[in-house]
Amino acid sequence: MVDNQIIARGISDPRVIDAMLQVPRELFVPEAARALAYSDQPLAIGEGQTISQPYIVALMIEAAAIGPEDHVLEIGAGSGYAAAVMGRIARTVHAVERLPALARAAGERMRALGIDNVTIIAADGTRGWRAHAPYDAILVPAAAAALPPELPDQLAPRGRLVLPLGPASQQRLIRLTRREDGGLAEADLGDVRFVPLIAADG
Ligand code: SAH
């Protein structure tokens, strides 16, 4: 998986590659889908949600340029796979998942794997998680029509926010970087397709 789907497509950050080699993706998919765990696609994880395609996980983490001192927030923990991969790179990962059954299963996976720097709660993440802010990186693997306004506020200086924006048919992966002068620099990382980010009020 890492050679054919990640390195061959241009992901070159050695930290991302190492972390993906360390985290067993088959433990993050339902038992019936184990045979497909390393295939080049998103997979259903129940409750109408998916574990992202491996390449997309790598792309988002590389775009967020996560380093060993970083504090990371993920909004939409799903299976917990991306959080576990980031946990192998960053100092801490806080992850929010709106569906309690998924949040619980993801937390159990972290305990089973002995990953103790990743904390997952069941909550609406559209307003971030202010208690642990600021973050060096915020990843949102779920698409919103517009930028949730409270997320960039929770970025540290030089922090990166990576998220898909736009309607289902034409989402773009966007990176916003908090500049020294306090402004935000924007980069467009291309076409993507994610499940929707759903706010607490629906
Ligand atoms: N990174 C995950 C895949 C995430 S799929 C993995 O590696 O498995 C997107 C997830 O975002 C879904 O589980 C969905 O329930 C969750 N989600 C959608 N809206 C949300 C919100 N407002 N707050 C928190 N989680 C949300």
Automatic annotation (TrEMBL):
Pfam families: PCMT (PF01135). One of its GO terms (biological process) is methylation. The keyword S-adenosyl-L-methionine applies. One of its GO terms (molecular function) is protein-L-isoaspartate (D-aspartate) O-methyltransferase activity. Its EC number is 2.1.1.77. The active site is at S52. The keyword Cytoplasm applies. It is found in: Cytoplasm. It comes from the Bacteria. Its main location: cytoplasm. One of its GO terms (cellular component) is cytoplasm. CDD domains: AdoMet_MTases. It catalyses: [protein]-L-isoaspartate + S-adenosyl-L-methionine = [protein]-L-isoaspartate alpha-methyl ester + S-adenosyl-L-homocysteine. Keywords: Cytoplasm, Methyltransferase, S-adenosyl-L-methionine, Transferase. InterPro entries: PCMT, SAM-dependent_MTases_sf. Belongs to the methyltransferase superfamily. L-isoaspartyl/D-aspartyl protein methyltransferase family. Catalyzes the methyl esterification of L-isoaspartyl residues in peptides and proteins that result from spontaneous decomposition of normal L-aspartyl and L-asparaginyl residues. It plays a role in the repair and/or degradation of damaged proteins. This is Protein-L-isoaspartate O-methyltransferase. It comes from Edaphosphingomonas fennica. The lineage of its organism: Bacteria, Pseudomonadati, Pseudomonadota, Alphaproteobacteria, Sphingomonadales.
